[in-house]
Amino acid sequence: MTAPLAPASFALSRRRFLSGLGLAAGAMALPGNVGMAFGQTSNTNILVVLYQRGGCDGLSLVAPVNDADYIAARPTLKVESSGSNAGLALGRSFGTTEMRLHPAATGLFELWQTGALAIVHATGLLSSNRSHFKSIDMLERAVADSENSQSTGWLTRTMTAIGATQTFGTLAGTSALPHSFAGASSPLAVKDYSTFALRNETANRTVLQTIFGTDTPYGVVGTGLLGALQTVNTLYPVGSNGQRTAYTPAAGVDYGTSDVGLGLKTIAQTIKMNVGLKLATVEQQGWDTHDSQPTRFQTLASNLGQALKAFWQDLGADQARVSVVVLTEFGRRVKENQNSGTDHGHGAVAMALGAGVKGGLYGTWPGLNSRNLDQGLDLMITTDYRQILWEVVNRRLGVSTPASIFPTLTAAPLGLMA
Amino acid sequence: MSSPSTTPVWIALGRLTFGATGDLYSIVSSIGYSQWVESQLAMRGDDPATAAELANVRLTISYPADFSYPAVNEVRPLWALQQSLSDCFAIRNAVAQQTLGFGELFFLLTQIRVATMIRQVSSQAQIFEKMAAFWHNHFSIQADQSSDTLAGWPSYDRDVIRANALGNFRVMVEAVTKSTAMLDYLDNNDSRAAQPNENYARELMELHTLGAGNYFDHQYPTWDAVPKVNGVAVGFIDQDVFDAAKALSGWVYGNNQRPTTTRRLFPDGAFVYEPVYHSTAPARVLGVDLSSLTAPMAAGQRVLDLVSYHPNTAKFVVGKIVKWFMGANPPQAVIDRAVDTWMASQTAPDQIARVVRTIAYSPEFFATANSYYRTPYEQMIAFARATGGTIRATTVAPNIALNTGYKFFNWPTPDGLPADTTYWQSSNTLQAMTNVLFSAYEGASYLTGNLLAQCQPLVSNPDALITFWSYKMLGGPLPADKHAALVADAAGTRGITPVVNARGNLEVPLRRLVALIANTPEFTYN
Known about the structure:
Chain A is an alpha/beta fold. Chain A has eleven helices and twelve strands. In chain A, α1 runs parallel beside α8. Chain B is mainly alpha-helical. Chain B has 26 helices and ten strands. Chain B is globular.
């Protein structure tokens, strides 16, 4: 088999990194591929991307509560202006259409009240498709329709653009890698550091190093794993009981037990390890609410808010360098179905949180009158989601032109970043 | 990575089975490859030894008393392999009435998982098992999504997937469409005339037949704009999905629904066509008008004909089958030849076996070793086969696969496990998989076996020992640097040599040695 070779600098930079680690654990001294020498003022900002998998119903998350078409289309699912299902008042409207957060999204509401949260409505892929798989694929490659030649994930391209190719430069807080990192040689995925360890690592390290090799993608990941473990072992040692020292979040912080909470906790832990993290992803499954939406959505919105709020509180002083973007592959059908659910739709909600974000409501509201609906069915998309990604990458990560990451995008920032 | 010096037949066997083994290689070398392939294509199920292994399994089920049911703590055979759909729905109904614990439903899935592991490791019908696994993933269902998918699971595995694994695609598509598990999972059971649920219709076209590559919603605004060949559109748009949903509405399973005030569908989980739920609104799918098809199920069956016999379905599905055997970038010539076979045998009862035969006899099939990257689960099964292990049939065994991040009949979305190998090559998955291999033969893990008995005369000679296991597991020697590293390791404190003198229990260092070989890219890439 002919496997792609790892870049020649790869093994060298890792070795030098590891040899330096004992002397300066925590300080990043990465030669060569970060594009700036240790000690210079460097961009230490971090971007976290949270994917809501399955297609989050934006019309429930940020609901146009007094819109007559909405009220008519959602007889059982609607978020209301008052009563038992009253939304959390944002104090913002598109024209006369008042937008409210889903009542279960209390964590998001607290973040909103601090001014750290920006909400963009009626955003999404510039494509008419309603397929999960095609939409997720396009979302993670960050492309428009028919941009088929772009095979790498958008975070892979961003990673290259900002020079974050070293171990811990990127992290997926999930057990497997999202497609956003397609084409990257060795991005790290860690769901939970407490179980991130190799059996008999000391005894096996040398021989594993040789038998993994670095001439296959698998071998490169294995080699990266051994390197990452050495760092983690230094900061969170495995005790004589075989357990790794646990991470303790800031006082009073409760991530909950959801997958998205655990993923964000792992990312916060990595940020505090101070090992040069620049790009991270995490995901929340389960937004494909074709049926039983009320109970499912309540749990999802509650977990999302709790996890993001906990993450934000946990960051403490690191808040100044961390920005979060929340995305989903599409919104859902305006008209609810007969199973207390919603089918695949079009326009969705995206959010940005944290450093540099100017809290508020963004986007252009197209309305829900059937004349204004996409294909007569769905919320129209008035903001290309790539504008949000680009604005954050540009303002926070210091990339100056979109060409290398979003080649077909004509930048038109919404102004949601300072 | 330099490939081990494997022979063409070893490469082909690695592809057609869950892992080539030294023993199988000897058999095939003696009877001949084509003889072996033909006997494989005739097999449809468990050989006697595997049937006996399955019959001897006893799994523990235990749960505390609650509601109206007593505590259960007992060992049981794999009853689910024989239990009918209505047997399983009787369990579901008892669980709903709280006279049995929910653990009974989950136990159905556990039994099928354990049986699957045993069959993939032990069964002689390896091509059959490979194709059963392919179809499970192609028609992917999250088995633990609901009580009904769980209750439907034994029947889905046996009567839908395994019954058709080497059979006819059109027949299989209809069996899948009518299956309780799929009707529940993709909501066709909830579809009603006034507002058909389009979930199944969409995935039928996008995932099961035509494929996402033939979804043209962004290219063609209307039906008429989509190009047609012989009166059938080359691909589909959303309108086709909406209308296919109309055609398939009324295809449900009995679940206490009340189509009319005087009629109730018996909750036995059995497929039934319910005319009250069927939409009679005009429908056109792939450019073909369905409105004249008013006989029961006629419109739905016409939709299944249109998508199952479509030439673009042949390209999509056959391409996936070839990748299943050969990895992500197979030679186009193999796909083209197999597509021709598929199209020429569309109505043959052994259509799929014929397609596999074409693939297995393609000259390209014997070339290019190590083109397929195994998932952690496949790695576990291949490791068992390569080292002569037997599945330790406990409820723990499937959980070990799940702990690597592998979804075992419970991938949440209907697209099935990712074909993109990048997904499986994460540091998280790799560390979990590595740990599983190192502990595989320990009491709390998933394999039993005796490694020492296989190599006793060689243990005092690390060089010969490592050569022996390399041939057994890889069909040839490891690259020299890796071989040398293992020989050097054998002299270390956890290696073979000192243990011979010091401790005497050679199973432990041998388990470590075979796990190390299984961690080489030469093993991980089949």
